[in-house]
Amino acid sequence: MLFAVYALDKENSLQIRMDTRERHLAYLMNSPLVFAGPLLDEEGNMCGSLIVLEMEDISQVEEFTENDPYAIAGLFESVEIRRFVKAFPREGINSA
């Protein structure tokens, strides 16, 4: 099952993000990651994270999120987890 994690950073926390970034990326490398990337504010600065994971149930995603180095460092103002369905692009369909 796919889950989307939508996490917003606390205000004025870019330094926490940058100080923790390498540990966070290493953590993602050892996960059932589908895709991930930073959210950007209107000026193009990182202000959060969008992570899509494939896991059995939401309790696994909650545990994963709680153990993320960003969460441990206190980066996030809020974290929202939702089940996710990949609709597009469809596998095997030529988009041309």
Mean pLDDT: 93
Specify the oligomeric state: single chain
Structural class of the helices, strands and pairings?
A: alpha+beta
CATH superfamily: Dimeric alpha+beta barrel
Number of domains: 1
Helical fraction: 25-40%
- The number of strands is 4
Radius of gyration: 14 Å
Main-sheet strand order equals 2-3-1-4
Low-pLDDT runs: none
Tally of contiguous helical segments: 3
Please report the distance between the alpha carbons of the first and last residues: 29 Å
Shape: globular
The CATH class label is: Alpha Beta
Output the CATH topology. Alpha-Beta Plaits
* Major sheet attributes: 4 strands, antiparallel
What is the helix/strand order? Answer: EHEEHHE
- Corresponding CATH architecture: 2-Layer Sandwich
**Could you tell me the strand content as a percent range?**
35-45%
